[in-house]
Design goal:
This protein is α/β, with parallel strands linked by helices. Helices cover 52% and strands 12% of the residues.
Length: 345
Amino acid sequence: MIEEAPVVTNPDILGEMYIPPDIPGREAQINELVACLKPAMKNKKPIHAWLFGMPGTGKTLIAKYVLRKIEREAYVSGVYINCWEQNSYYSVLDKLVRELRILGAEKLNTSYKLERLEMFLGKKPFVIVLDEIDQPKAKEREDILYNLCELGNVGLVCVCNSRSVLYSMDERIRSRLNARQIEFNPYTEDDLLFILKQRAEFALRPGSWSEKILSEIARLAEGDARVAIHNLKDAGYLAENEGSSRIREKHVNEGFSSAKDIKKTYLLNKLTTHHRLLYDIVREKGSIHSGQLWKAYLERCSSLGKQPIALRTFSEYMNKLIELDLVQWDRALVRGKVRVFRVSS
């Protein structure tokens, strides 16, 4: 029996780390970010940038793409840091000195590391991408930005889901940073179709996909490139495992459910334990009033031996879940500011 050739021939092209040569629908954002960093090409200090938008809108991709572009074309060095992994001022500094291989900066002291970094960089233009800048706690985030944003000719590119984190910071920090805000709206279906065709041509076996199938994936993704690419990859593997030579609509529909689950897991893993506790309670209840949710949350914390967050923080956490489209709400049909929460479909 002759085995069917694999459908997914180059899975790396469908991975999170892949940076394509062309990125459709993001020309304006690329130009804005290049304009911010252009002074570095003349040995001057770049303009700090704040990239914001919902997950799957290309923020991290563009930050990496432009960083690579200026490194290749203008010989301006830079470092990418994921603040989900390096979520403290110390760990960000430690990542920088290790990436730059700065000798003598091993001391467990932030002031010393910053001093060594400043000496190493001097007046050389340099770019630091701070992805997931909303992940460090407020004090750590402000220390990171306050100390790095005026360092020599260093330009910061901060990547975040929204502007709310920027606006919530101390005015002194915000003024010092003075970042240019660059918004990323959801992709159009045409943009997603272009992205999917670009990936399919290099990642899938010729003849295993059609433009009609890619259009359906683009429609289902609702502007989220991460979901669209995950869906394409999952559909390809489903077809392959079934022994089918082509990706069909049933593979797309099944893959879409998997891609949405991956997105939810990805978003929840970025949040705190208390965000996840609140999400789990809403998911378990199906529909729950804000007062009932608060009571259930306190009971859950008590049973787990955890210190609960304050009521004010509870409201902020629920707003974060709503902002990420993990939870939806309606106004309850009772007097007062009572909301009814449910998990997004």
